[in-house]
């Protein structure tokens, strides 16, 4: 079989491992059904296989390591959606996909089907090291310093059924990027890694203790330049400190961010250094040979730019303004002049953000095969990226996406709304988030209006656990429950990335319709009073939240 | 109570072990050979006594509390402890391989516990992705 | 969750749980059996619900259900759970009418 572009090609041992893991889970399901395992005991075991008990049924969360899928895998996900679910899948902010209508009885069979395409659901939940996330433009972006995916795969393998770190105080999320621009929200992860090359091999900047949720914290720098050889040792040491000292008496105080906050970054760093001092580093050394062996299992796309690609593309844009608008918002510079990175918006106005039907999955698989080396990337903003598209083929790609109803020209704009599943599906939620996402999406659905508004991120979470990353949105919305009714708090001024900051609560929570109207008034206020070229976020930064609060609450 | 042997090392019979607490060990180190460590006590605290210790007992208040994995691995890796490591408390057979790989030798089980699951779990995985104390 | 001691005359208590095998929502009927549809749920007084909850919880494992708890609903055919969360559990997600457990006309209160 030809090696997949962009992700690790499984060896026979990786496949054997998956079969062993599925057999174990099948046995655990049997023991649960026989009563040998109580629900309390079974719960963490099923969670570590991606299975939640949600509002209507069991939910299965499938891992998409560092966000990369090949077309064969996407077709397998379409099969799961059709055969075991209701024809849908939902892409999440953690570069995973969730199926909402799963039966526990079917779960082992689903995992077997997924394993046929080298996919699994291992550690997509539970108090363990979760799916490793990475940059959606990895290996393609013009500004990238190094492709982080080889190291992401090394971390995936290292964290898989780690004997010491499978029963941590709480979940542990790691993101890795190789770009100067932080597109992975490294400072909002338990550990964020920013990789860069040097004369002596890759170096890693390590952030620790970031996260959203109940207690949003921007991560702090633990180390500036960890050499590749010491990457695994450094992570081991950090996790050892966390496993020994992280709180276990209070679920809401158990993340590593609380430990780092409580003792302070300097003592935490000293504790990690003390572990490193006790370790035989040669034993934990990530060798160049090991890195090379993993890298050899990644195929690179064979790029063949055509001479007149730019001219052909310019002609297409001239002839079709709708295409030109999509080009403007949904493409990103590729390192090869003849190629572009294209983002497929899963935010068609009025639809559910991140929801994809089985037919759309199959259609996207076809498109990836035709235009993008069969490779797709799931983004933490719930979209799909095609990493390497020849410029002269972008028009045909866009036409294909239009047929799938996936050609919304709204990436990075008001319609590109991030939302958790909310109360419609999630047992933790206090309020629905999807109906609000649809209303806002429809309200700002007009492409010209979105273009005029410019860069704007709206993030919706149905509860304080913040799966919709509401603290990190320029406009954040948090659903709350007030005596059995749904209300929505608005936050302003959050952002991920290099200048990560946490949005501030604007004022009292509003009803769903009032929240939509308040946001519309804030955006109108921005359009009427902005300085030239000033983005919404820049205006919020310049003026503070007061003027926005005033217009948001003017009729309430 | 009975013991399940994970490592196939020579072990101290259940009825013979009479572990003291870390505090007792510090107070009266003379004749002690077995010590029970609480989850919040560090393996390093045993360093002055390890020459005489042949059994360290670690405790799981609940199976989700994984501190004993770090304690066991630290005893083996940092303290070079060669004696027996035993775990008590709420432990699941599903944790058998993790325990062994972190250097645990024995698990204390209720008398009526079925050991077949433990046996099965030890043999389940032929492939692992990390180096560890024991394979 | 509305306190059971503050029921108004047009409200009652339903018992609900999740089925172990497929995770589906079930409602407890008069005879102690579990049903897929909220219309078959027994509409209980607060006092009745206490005894029924105790009985249902002890039988849960044997009946293949888990997490039994009481829900306040307005009486009706079918009963209408008061909170949005329970309304969604009874009638299906609000964003996919095609997944609704009952026709929309019935589900709207």
Automatic annotation (TrEMBL), chain A:
It comes from the Bacteria. InterPro entries: NIR_SIR_4Fe-4S, NiRdtase/SiRdtase_haem-b_fer, Nit/Sulf_reduc_fer-like_dom_sf, NO2/SO3_Rdtase_4Fe4S_dom, NO2/SO3_Rdtase_4Fe4S_sf. Residues 58-117, 341-403 form the Nitrite/Sulfite reductase ferredoxin-like domain. Residues 125-277, 418-552 form the Nitrite/sulphite reductase 4Fe-4S domain. Gene3D superfamilies: 3.90.480.20, Sulfite Reductase Hemoprotein, domain 1, Sulfite Reductase Hemoprotein,Domain 2. Keywords: 4Fe-4S, Heme, Iron, Iron-sulfur, Metal-binding, Oxidoreductase. Pfam families: NIR_SIR (PF01077), NIR_SIR_ferr (PF03460). This is Nitrite/sulfite reductase. It comes from Saccharibacter floricola DSM 15669.
TrEMBL record, chain B:
It comes from Saccharibacter floricola DSM 15669. It comes from the Bacteria. This is DUF934 domain-containing protein. InterPro entries: UCP030820. Pfam families: DUF934.
From TrEMBL, chain C:
It comes from the Bacteria. It holds the Pfam family DUF2849. InterPro entries: DUF2849. This is DUF2849 domain-containing protein.
């Amino acid at each position: 079989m030809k090696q997949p572009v962009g992700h690790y090609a499984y060896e026979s041992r990786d496949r054997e491992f998956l079969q062993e893991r599925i057999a174990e889970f099948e046995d655990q399901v049997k023991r649960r059904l026989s009563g040998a395992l109580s629900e309390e005991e079974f719960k963490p075991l099923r969670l570590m296989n991606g299975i939640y008990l949600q509002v209507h049924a069991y939910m299965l969360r499938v891992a998409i390591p560092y966000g990369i899928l090949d077309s064969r895998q996407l077709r397998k996900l379409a099969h799961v959606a059709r055969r075991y679910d209701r024809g849908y899948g939902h892409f999440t902010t953690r570069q995973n996909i969730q199926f909402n209508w799963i039966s526990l009885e079917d779960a082992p069979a689903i995992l077997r089907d997924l394993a046929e395409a080298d996919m699994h659901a291992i550690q997509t939940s539970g108090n363990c090291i979760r799916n490793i996330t990475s940059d959606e433009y990895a290996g393609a972006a013009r500004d990238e310093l190094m492709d982080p995916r080889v190291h992401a795969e090394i971390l995936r393998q290292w964290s898989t059924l780690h004997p010491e770190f499978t029963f941590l105080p709480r979940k542990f999320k790691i993101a890795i990027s190789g770009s100067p621009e932080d597109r992975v929200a490294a400072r909002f992860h338990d550990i964020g890694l920013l990789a860069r090359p040097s004369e002596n091999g890759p170096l890693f900047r390590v952030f620790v203790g970031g996260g959203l949720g109940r207690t949003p914290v921007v991560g702090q720098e633990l180390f500036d330049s960890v050499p590749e050889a010491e990457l695994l040792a450094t992570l081991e040491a950090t996790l050892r400190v966390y496993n020994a000292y992280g709180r276990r008496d209070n679920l809401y105080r158990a993340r590593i961010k609380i430990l780092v906050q409580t003792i302070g970054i300097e003592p935490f760093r000293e504790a990690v250094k003390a572990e490193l001092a006790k370790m035989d580093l040669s034993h934990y050394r990530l060798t160049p040979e090991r890195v090379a062996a993993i890298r050899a299992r990644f195929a690179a796309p064979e790029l063949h730019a055509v001479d007149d690609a730019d001219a052909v593309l310019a002609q297409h844009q001239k002839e079709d303004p709708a295409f030109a608008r999509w080009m403007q918002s949904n493409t990103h510079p590729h390192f090869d002049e003849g190629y572009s990175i294209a983002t497929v918006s899963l935010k068609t106005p009025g639809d559910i953000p991140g929801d994809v039907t089985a037919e759309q999955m199959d259609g996207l698989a076809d498109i990836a095969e035709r235009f993008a080396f069969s490779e797709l990337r799931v983004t933490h903003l719930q979209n799909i990226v095609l990493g390497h598209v020849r410029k002269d083929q972008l028009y045909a790609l866009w036409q294909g996406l239009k047929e799938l109803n996936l050609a919304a020209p709204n990436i990075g704009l008001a319609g590109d709304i991030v939302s958790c599943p909310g109360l419609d599906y999630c047992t933790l939620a206090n309020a629905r988030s999807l109906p609000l996402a649809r209303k806002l999406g429809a309200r700002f659905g007009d492409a010209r209006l979105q273009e005029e508004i410019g860069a704007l991120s709206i993030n919706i979470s149905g509860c304080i656990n913040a799966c919709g990353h509401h603290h990190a949105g320029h406009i954040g919305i948090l659903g709350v429950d007030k005596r059995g009714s749904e209300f929505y708090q608005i936050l302003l001024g959050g952002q991920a990335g290099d200048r990560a900051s946490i949005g501030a609560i604007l004022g009292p929570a509003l009803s769903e319709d009032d929240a939509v109207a308040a946001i519309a008034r804030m955006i109108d206020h921005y359009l009427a009073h902005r300085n030239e070229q000033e983005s919404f976020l820049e205006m919020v930064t310049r003026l503070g939240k007061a003027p926005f609060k005033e217009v948001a609450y003017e009729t309430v | 109570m009975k013991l399940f042997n994970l490592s196939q090392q020579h072990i101290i019979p259940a009825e013979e072990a009479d572990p003291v607490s870390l505090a007792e060990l510090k107070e009266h180190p003379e004749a002690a050979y077995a010590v029970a460590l609480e989850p919040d006590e560090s393996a390093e605290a045993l360093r002055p006594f390890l020459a005489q210790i042949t059994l360290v007992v670690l405790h799981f208040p609940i199976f989700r509390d994984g501190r004993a994995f770090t304690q066991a691995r630290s005893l083996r890796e940092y303290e070079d402890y060669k004696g027996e490591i035993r775990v008590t408390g709420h432990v699941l057979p599903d944790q058998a391989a993790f325990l062994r790989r972190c250097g645990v030798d024995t698990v204390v089980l209720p008398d009526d516990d079925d050991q077949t699951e433990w046996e099965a779990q030890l043999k389940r995985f032929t492939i692992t992705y990390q180096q560890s104390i024991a394979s | 969750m509305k306190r059971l001691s503050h029921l108004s005359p047009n409200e009652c208590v339903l018992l609900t749980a999740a089925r172990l095998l497929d995770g589906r929502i079930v409602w407890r009927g008069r005879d102690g059996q579990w049903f897929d549809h909220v219309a078959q749920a027994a509409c209980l007084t607060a006092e009745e619900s206490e005894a029924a909850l105790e009985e249902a919880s002890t039988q849960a494992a044997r009946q293949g259900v888990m997490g039994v708890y009481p829900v306040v609903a307005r009486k009706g055919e079918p009963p209408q759970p008061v909170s949005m969360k329970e309304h969604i559990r009874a009638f299906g997600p609000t964003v996919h009418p095609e997944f609704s457990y009952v026709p929309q006309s019935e589900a709207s209160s």
